[in-house]
Design a protein that fits this description.
Helices cover about 65% and strands about 0% of the residues. The protein contains 3 helices and no strands. The chain has helices at about 10-30, 35-55, 60-70. It starts with 7 loop residues before the first helix and ends in a 15-residue tail after the last helix.
């Protein structure tokens, strides 16, 4: 089994990608592009998972994700059991 890679270069690259992704989410949300913001939220979640797999803590980003996901509205229209008008 391969050991997690947590070299300074890996951590720096990961941190940079997290910051760019967060900036894109904020920009998309500010412009009302919720679909793009959600796509990048998914990407950010994958980066957080990658960080956790390599023992890299991203507490600010985890809190950012929790805050963003807490504010989401559940879209019941996509539920197969919902009737549409």
């Amino acid at each position: 089994m391969q050991e997690p890679i947590s070299s300074p270069t890996f951590v720096a690259e990961l941190s940079e990608r997290v910051q760019r992704t967060r900036a894109t989410i904020d920009s998309a949300a500010a412009n009302g592009d919720d679909d793009l913001a959600q796509a990048f939220l998914d990407d950010l979640e994958a980066l957080v998972d990658l960080a956790a797999a390599h023992d890299v803590a991203l507490p600010d980003t985890v809190a950012y994700l929790a805050d963003r996901q807490h504010g989401q509205v559940l879209d019941l229209r996509s539920s197969p059991s919902c009737a549409t008008a």
